[in-house]
Amino acid sequence: MTAVVIDGKAFAAGVRARVAAHVARLSEEHGVQPGLAVVLVGEDPASQVYVRNKGVQTVEAGMTSFEHKLTADTSEADLLALVRALNADPKVHGILVQLPLPGHVNADLVINTIDPAKDVDGFHISNVGLLGTGQKAMVPCTPLGCLMMLRAYHGSLAGMTAVVVGRSNIVGKPMAQLLLGDSCTVTIAHSRTRDLASVCRGADILVAAVGRPEMITGDMVKPGATVIDVGINRVERDGKSRLVGDVDFASVSAVAGAITPVPGGVGPMTIACLLANTLTACCRAHGLPEPEGLTA
Residue 214 pLDDT > 90, yes or no? Predict the structure, then answer.
């Protein structure tokens, strides 16, 4: 068996196109333009690249991009004051504070100061609670992207057995909640799961989000399963640096029915879903119908 490769890059391009079309209609029919504010504290190189890409794609989608770049020694009080100002700004529909933050800043306090309705990362404790109880929430971007791809590939997920390897607040836990919401039977596995391989082999859908390079191998996968690889790990091989996922692509693709590659799988969906969340937040703020197929 050779797995179907789920092209996240192409899928993300489609999501961005749908977002842009809906944004254009909002502007034409209602005079509304979604706005996304991104706050970057410090000069982490990876964060700088990520924020720059977000800004470019926000503008390409027809939205307004507000970028706030603060020095690494910015006080927690000043950062919180900025967040509160963005909460009060009617032109800003989505707020994202880029993580990680400098050590002297309480990240949880900052995240929970964001207006939950503008929390397009889906990290605010109110959104976590709403998602966990099956209510309307802002959903974390990476799990939302995974769910979109799974729905597109399978149609209905009802009755399928899903295993999520990883229990982070950013991916693992919300991913499990989203799959449960689509009527999967869900197991969350992690580093202390006994006989992890056996647990994984029971999955129709296997989501790897554990942060360990190529941890999931072909002998851990049920033949024909759909494997979603959330991991992005940089490794050195033959004197060269390369990106690999949490899944050993070569061995798993020989067993699975479908698989996302790294790079080019889940990664491109994260920013696409950030734009989708900003659009959703804008529609909710103005009492307008939400875009179909772009939310959980």
Answer: yes
Amino acid letter for position 220: M
Q: Which of 287, 279, 277, 46 is nearest to 174 (CA)?
A: 277
Which one of 98, 118, 119, 173 is the catalytic residue?
98
115 is catalytic: no
In the 8-state DSSP scheme, what is residue 242?
E
Phi, psi of 187 (to 5 degrees): -120, 135
pLDDT in tens, 162-204: 999 999 999 999 999 999 999 999 999 998 999 999 999 999 9
The CB-side HSE value for 179 (13 A sphere, CA atoms) comes to 28
Catalytic residue, candidates 57, 115, 119, 121? 121
Q: Is 98 a catalytic residue?
A: yes
pTM > 0.85: yes
What CA–CA distance (Å, rounded) separates 198 from 196? 5
Average pLDDT over residues 44-62: 91
As a whole number, the mean pLDDT across the chain is 96
In whole angstroms, what is the distance from residue 81 CA to residue 98 CA? 16
Measured between alpha carbons, how far is residue 15 from residues 3, 8, 20, 170, 218 in Å?
A: 23, 10, 9, 21, 31
Does residue 54 carry a catalytic annotation?
Answer: yes
Helical segments of the chain, H only: 8-30, 45-60, 76-88, 107-111, 125-132, 141-154, 172-181, 196-201, 249-253, 267-285
